[in-house]
Amino acid sequence: MPCEKLALELSSSLMIGLPPRLGSELGAVPPFPGQWRCRVPIAMCNSWGSLMPPLCAELTFSEVGNIVEVGLLDFLSFILVVSFGLLIMAHLAALRDRRSEFEVTKDCNGMDHVVLRVPRGASARVRCHLVMFMIFLWLPTYVHSTSQYLVQLELGNSFGDSISAPRLKGMFISDTILEIMACSCQHISTNTEWSLAMDDGNQSEQKDMAMFKPPKAMRGGIPICFPQFGNRGSLEQHGFARNKMWTIDDNPPPLNVDYCKEKVSVNLLLKPSEEDLKSWPHCFEIRHKVCLAMDGDLTLISRVRNINGRPFSFSFGYHTYLSISDISEVRIEGLETLDYLDNLCQRERFTEQGDAVTFESEVDRIYLGSPNVIAVLDHEKKRTFLIRKEGLPDVVVWNPWERKAKSMVDLGDEEYKQMICVDAAVIEKPVTLKPGEEWTGRLDLSAVPYTYCIDHVDHLRGM
Ligand SMILES: O=P(O)(O)OC[C@H]1O[C@@H](O)[C@H](O)[C@@H](O)[C@@H]1O
């Protein structure tokens, strides 16, 4: 026998001994007087525990139920039966996983939230919360007087990190793989904002979590900058999309390539309000899909469509706050030798001279025509964020440093050290859409061991 261990998987009644009567019920035929024989499935395991192909055994039992002989036979019929059984089990497991990947529950305040889960590893919580969750801590009656919801995506933990985060005052940057992405949204009305938040179940801590003053976005997470990036236009800083109520889109048009197969996801939709049309008179729809992969990687896919009227142009950016150990310990690879516009020098154009971007003072730059993979290496945490992107040629790198941080009401004086914004964006050459045309941008975020990218980034760039 090639295996070192033979495991007999019998029915529970067989396992505890087979009385002749039971053998007979199972169709056993007495080979000799006083003996009984029957066929049962067996599974063989080797010393490493891997399961060998199952076989069927013919067992001969003595009169008192002891096994006196084991023979292997009937391989094909047994394979058929077992395959059928495995198929049913797989189907049931898939059903169970599907059920558990989207679960609507209530939080301790009785508010609905949706938990997105992947069977192994990461989870995401889509929390249907009040927009004013800062307020409801202190004015609970407000909970009942508004119909606005905050949908909050919370990335769970796939790398064994604790979800309890360095809680930056006014900023929800967790220590987990990709922070937390959140947006405010509501099924019916249109009046809230994108924001980021984290909930580790400790409601009492939420009052520390943000300057949450709708319609202004909270700092942190991955707000969507649209249709303007920064102050390069007449609209509010980074455009209005991050300050709007998005709706959950139950029936989005299919993507040309579905990057979110095997991932749990949520689809969001924003259409312009009357007020938006006054400041930006273009008929558009912007869709945003958030996908959580089995291993906790996050994919964001955004689509902007010109739904009628005249052509229009826009800028777009994923304003991505990453949690880092210390800004002085971080380097960004993938931007070397590129030209950049320095926002701190009236957008003057320079060329990156270093072999990586490192930080010693305030940085606010737009790197132009960057490769599709950027790596943010955190030496102290021994972790690298990989940013893969499509349709987003520019990369904004921003850290306010000490002086500016002190002037920002929603950033603690020292908190600039634990954050870096690396925004995949399209800024220098805005996108122009003719009527009926659609633009798609995609961002993949993952956290990998520190050394990973050094060996792999070049390979990934070719993807
Ligand atoms: O405070 P906001 O509006 O979120 O913007 C923060 C920063 O975002 C960066 O993307 C910009 O380049 C900076 O100029 C800006 O200060």
UniProtKB/TrEMBL annotation:
Keywords noted in UniProt: Isomerase, Membrane, Transmembrane, Transmembrane helix
GO molecular-function terms, A-Z: carbohydrate binding; glucose-6-phosphate 1-epimerase activity
Biological processes annotated in GO: carbohydrate metabolic process
TM helices/strands, residue ranges: 75-95, 126-143
Catalytic activity: alpha-D-glucose 6-phosphate = beta-D-glucose 6-phosphate
Group of enzyme by EC: isomerase
EC number: 5.1.3.15
UniProt cross-references to CDD domains, sorted A to Z: D-hex-6-P-epi_like (cd09020)
GO annotation, cellular component aspect: cytoplasm
Gene3D superfamilies named in the record: 2.70.98.10
Family to which the UniProt record says this protein belongs: Belongs to the glucose-6-phosphate 1-epimerase family.
The protein's name: glucose-6-phosphate 1-epimerase
Organism: Canna indica (Indian-shot)
Highest classification ranks of the organism: Eukaryota, Viridiplantae, Streptophyta, Embryophyta, Tracheophyta
